[in-house]
Backbone:
């Protein structure tokens, strides 16, 4: 009998509201270890909010999220949801590294300093080992020669690649990417997508990518998820979904790109 693969990320009927606006209306997704999932959808569809709930940068009002079997944000006690202690939340965040639209690098630290900060201060890695690993990761994203440069000396694409190396340095189980090319000049987008494509091809880390880059969503992802109005409308094989969308909402969304 084959072993049952435990989901890496399990999202069950998750709901989230901001005041009177319900942004997530019962979202459920199961993501397997090593899977690359791209999430697409119009602005306001709940994509980024869902991503932020996965590593508990955002609280959620109902349902459950688990990462590698561990609950995110809350535990169940006596039929009620009880918030987790901050140390447990911090442990979870170390396993779910997030790369943001804005690069969020420490301006007073070099590229290498940014990459080694998490391993040394959060995971307790020795400085020499963190430096060696940091240089490997900078080389992986094509920036070994920029190790001693500060963020202000780097282009936006280079800063975003440093941010990806910084996330990888934590050896996360899941990497979350939130529209990571949207703040970049068009000519810099390709270098960041190439790094992400390389990560996807390596099949080493589970990736959840909120993106508007349709070529990346089609070519790099194992699965495409289309969200609209706070729900998952359609999901499946990327090429099939893009070539033959089943829902009118996805057809209308894709027409925007064909008409661009």
Residues:
């Amino acid at each position: 009998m084959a072993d049952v693969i435990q989901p890496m990320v399990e999202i069950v009927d998750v709901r989230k509201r901001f005041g009177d606006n319900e942004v997530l209306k019962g979202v459920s997704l199961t993501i397997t270890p090593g899977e690359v999932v791209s999430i697409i959808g119009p602005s306001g569809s709940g994509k980024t909010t869902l991503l932020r709930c996965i590593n508990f940068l955002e609280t959620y009002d109902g349902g459950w999220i688990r990462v590698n079997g561990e609950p995110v944000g809350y535990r169940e006690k006596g039929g009620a949801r009880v918030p987790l202690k901050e140390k447990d939340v911090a442990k979870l965040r170390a396993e779910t590294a997030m790369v943001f639209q804005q690069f969020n690098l420490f301006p007073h630290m070099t590229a290498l300093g940014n990459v080694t900060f998490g391993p040394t201060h959060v995971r307790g890695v020795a400085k020499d080992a963190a430096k060696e690993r940091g240089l490997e990761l900078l080389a992986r994203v094509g920036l070994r020669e920029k190790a001693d440069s500060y963020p202000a000396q780097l282009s936006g694409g280079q800063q975003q690649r440093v941010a990806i190396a910084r996330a990888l340095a934590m050896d996360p189980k899941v990497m979350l990417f939130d529209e990571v090319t949207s703040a970049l000049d068009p000519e810099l987008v390709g270098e960041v997508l190439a790094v992400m494509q390389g990560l996807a091809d390596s099949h080493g880390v589970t990736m959840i990518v909120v993106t508007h880059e349709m070529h990346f969503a089609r070519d790099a992802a194992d699965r495409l998820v289309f969200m609209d109005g706070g729900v998952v409308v359609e999901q499946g094989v990327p090429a099939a979904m893009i070539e033959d969308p089943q829902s009118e909402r996805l057809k209308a969304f894709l027409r925007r790109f064909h008409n661009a």
Observations:
- Residues 186-202 form the longest helix (17 residues).
- The first strand starts at residue 9 and ends at 18.
